[in-house]
Amino acid sequence: MRNFILFVLLVSIPAAGQSNSSLATQRAKHLRRGINLSEWFAQVYDPKGYTKEHLVGWITAEDIALIQSMGFDHVRLSINPEPMMHHNMADQIPREYLGYLDLAVKMILDHRLAVILDMHPDSDFKAKLVQRDDQVEQFSDFWRALARHYSSYDPEMVYFEVLNEPEFRDRYRWAGVQAKLAAAIRDGAPHHTIIAGGANWSNVDNLLAMTPLSDPNVIYNFHYYDPHTFTHQGATWGENYWHFETKLAYPAEMSNVGKVAGEQPDPLNRLTVLRYGLDQWNANRIAVEIGQAAEWARRWNVPLTCNEFGVFRRYSDPQDRARWLHDVRTTLEHYGIGWNMWDYGARGNGEGFGVVNGPSQGPNTPDGVTLQALGLK
């Protein structure tokens, strides 16, 4: 009898990698080729802020139709929770703002595109989550209310992403916070799929360091911009040395790298750029890194997506950018990992990360070189 009881206990406890994630795996098939919608409900840098004019006009039905026609099957909608959160009343979401969000979600779904509702606050909001338990509690209240609001929407088409790029250096603190937020989402929407990720900017390293949530209906996510020396050349945020770079080649070629490195006035930054060439950044290097993310997902038997990858366009050569996008995209597809490029670029004038050449006024037009790199029409 004792041996029989031991046998029952052993077969009833799932081993590592045996979690029941079949539902999440099936739903991940709706998230194969995506594009981010930024600067609409998040990252609004206009001094006027989140006005009605902005929320109803930044992305139009024509934009969504264009996204669908290019061959994308879903969008990731960045949402800043701060304009919708009242202090100590985070569960009481303002109806007017929520109405604008409802219109956006409906417009996306009407074009047969799935949508990820991605909580995408600024860094100061995320810093409060790191430092204050009461901020975590209020954010949980907010998430529960928002998830409940969308709980009647088709769970095959609407997904909830806990938090974009957590800025938690303490992985254990983030593990606890994410578990609490995910539980609040699950309380509000019992049947919908949650998207979770690792600490500190959601890169491959932090994915590998995490243990999956106990909830089986979760898709895991990482972001891929490596190496930033190439993908963020010319950018004026993040590392200061980026803004000195222009026309850095990919794959890495020491002849070109040496020239770009020579433009760095700081010797330490000069060495950083030189190391880009010495590290042999090419398709094989990318495949090895993303392969480790795929191995993590295989080990835990969970579905995986890459919700952000891209190259800043302003100072990168279009063909070098296209080669990097192609290598990342084909590697992800090789491992069966769905992807979501950053980003649409509605008003980017071809200078951001966009898939369109958006003028400051007028219609957006697809960038053919980028589409080809993404394997789209």
Verbal overview:
Helices cover about 45% and strands about 10% of the residues. It has an eight-stranded parallel β-barrel, surrounded by five helices. The chain has helices spanning about 1-10, 20-30, 50-55, 60-70, 95-110, 125-130, 135-150, 170-190, 205-210, 230, 255-260, 265-280, 285-300, 320-335, 370-375; strands at about 35-40, 75-80, 115-120, 160, 195, 220-225, 305-310, 340. It folds into two domains: about 15-225 and about 280-375, TIM Barrel, CATH 3.20.20.80; about 230-280, no CATH class. The chain has about 375 residues and is α/β, with parallel strands linked by helices. The protein is built from 15 helices and eight strands. Helix 6 (about 125-130) packs across helix 7 (about 135-150) and helix 11 (about 255-260) packs antiparallel against helix 12.
Give the SSE map.
Layout: H1 2-12, H2 22-28, E1 33-41, H3 52-57, H4 61-70, E2 74-79, H5 95-110, E3 114-119, H6 123-131, H7 133-149, E4 158-161, H8 171-188, E5 194-197, H9 204-208, E6 218-224, H10 228-231, H11 254-261, H12 267-278, H13 283-300, E7 304-309, H14 318-334, E8 338-341, H15 368-373
Parallel strand pairs: 1-2, 1-8, 2-3, 3-4, 4-5, 5-6, 6-7, 7-8
Helix pairs in contact: 6-7, 7-8, 11-12, 13-14
